[in-house]
Amino acid sequence: MRVIDLADLPHRPIEAHGSRGFSVGAFGLGADTHLVAVDLAPGGVIGRHPAVGCQLLVVFAGEAEVSGAELTVRRIGPGQGAVWEPGEVHETRSPGGMTALIVEGDLDIGAPGEQVDPGDV
């Protein structure tokens, strides 16, 4: 077993799409999926851009204000997530700062539980 401390991952700042106060630390890669630890400073923004694939943002600490193609802003906190479909233009802001995980790629978010984990047989 390995233990990964997401806070210890090397992070790099991202300024594309007008982003500010935004850094990422990649820590996992699959055939069609990648996992990224995200830090958003207080007042930070991940600028409006299209999702490359299906994208899931899960907040671990802090809060995020997220919006998608319809521009409706929703506030999410720890234990909550936002899902954007491939190509959907979206944005994330955080007035107080946020730590999160992004999983992006060939995902089926919301698949019935028995498909994801059939349990012991």
From TrEMBL:
InterPro entries reported in the protein's UniProt record: RmlC-like_jellyroll, RmlC_Cupin_sf
Cross-referenced SUPFAM superfamilies: RmlC-like cupins (SSF51182)
Species per Swiss-Prot/TrEMBL record: Nocardioides oleivorans
- The protein here is known as Cupin domain-containing protein
